[in-house]
Amino acid sequence: MIFKERVSLVTGASQGIGEAIAEELGREGATVVLVDIQKEKLDQVAERLSAAGIKAIPFEADVSDSARVTRVVEEVISSLGRIDHLINNAGITRDTLLLRMKEEEWDLVLQINLKGAFNFCRAALKSMFNARYGRIVNIASVVGLMGNVGQTNYAASKAGLIGFSKSLAREVAPRGITVNCVAPGYIATPMTEKLPEEVKKAFLDIIPMKRFGLPVEVARVVKFLCSDDAAYITGQVISVNGGMYM
Ligand code: NAP
């Protein structure tokens, strides 16, 4: 187990990619702090992971609420002493063409997908600075690299996350902290499940591997970026997309 004694905090951990990341890091011995917005779902995942022998601690929080995020990080530091891995995974979509997009749809996506990562990074960095160690992985998207019709808000948030991560990587590299992005393509999760069949088919047509990705295929890349093997990798965007965008 490569993460014994490590503490990993994963946002959006109660389903999909975040749940898979929490499980993957937990199986390597990390204590996983699960953050999500719905308490019931979160508690179920924490129970499931605990039953599998993983130390999982749930925290209900909206990542866009900076005061709440600060409190969560303070509680984690005071009870567990550290945050070694911070995985900013919580994200939402509010898809529509720009001409029809409401201001609230723009603001909400940016608040959660981009400001959420800012909130957690800012709150967790102090302890990482003191430890002179840290791994931050921000979950971006293929859409932040290539754009997509109906997703101007989402693409802006994910492209913003990439620029944010590269800038932060430069700021914190001298302190032994790495900051990278993982950019998934189309991964089968509750987020993509709700897309209309014709949209799913259109995606499949442009994926050279002719299948959708699995959450665990993203989680394994996150695990690698958190490991000692990735110590000299920072400011990078690793795509996990079956060749959809090269
Ligand atoms: P998902 O199935 O919708 O899971 C996201 C989780 O984040 C949900 O449990 C959601 O709770 C939670 N969440 C939403 N808003 C939150 C908030 N304000 N504070 C805390 N938690 C919040 O999504 P996913 O497919 O696993 O995606 C995970 C990440 O990967 C996202 O950042 C997404 O943009 C990115 N991504 C996904 C794909 C894909 O194909 N699936 C592709 C590229 C990138 P609720 O269910 O209650 O909203």
Strand order of the largest sheet: 3-2-1-4-5-6-7
Number of E strands: 7
Bound molecules: NADP nicotinamide-adenine-dinucleotide phosphate
Which residues form runs of ≥5 with pLDDT under 50? Answer: none
Q: Could you tell me the strand content as a percent range?
A: 15-25%
Shape: globular
Oligomeric description of these chains: single chain
SSE order in H/E notation?
EHEHEHEHEHHEHHHE
The structural class is alpha/beta
Radius of gyration, in Å, reads: 17 Å
Instruction: Give the fraction of residues assigned to helices.
Output: 40-55%
Distance between the termini: 33 Å
**Number of helices, counting only DSSP H or I runs of 4 residues or more:** 9
Compute the average pLDDT. Answer: 98
Q: What is the makeup of the main sheet?
A: 7 strands, parallel
